[in-house]
Amino acid sequence: MKVNRSIGCSVTECRYHAKSEPLCSLDSIQVGKNASSAASEKDTECSSFDRE
Ligand code: SF4
What we know:
The chain is mainly beta and 52 residues long. It has one domain. It is built from no helices and 4 strands. The protein has strands spanning 4-8, 23-24, 31-33, 44-46. The protein has a two-stranded antiparallel ribbon with strand order 1-2. Strands 3-4 form a two-stranded antiparallel sheet. It is elongated. The mean pLDDT is 97. The structure holds iron/sulfur cluster. Iron/sulfur cluster binds next to loops.
C-alpha cells in the first residue's frame, strides 16, 4: 500500500489507513467540522474516513 507521508493519522479503523505506519494512503483528504463554529481540534474531523 502506498502511503502519503504528508498526512499523519492514527485512525487504524479506517480503510485508508496505512496500518504499518501512522499515515494515510490517500493523495488528499477532506477535513470537516462537527460544530457550527469550531473552537478546538475536537470540533474537526476527517470527512474522508470510511470504516474498514
Ligand atoms: S481517510 Fe482520514 S481517517 Fe482515514 S486514514 Fe486517511 S486521514 Fe485517517
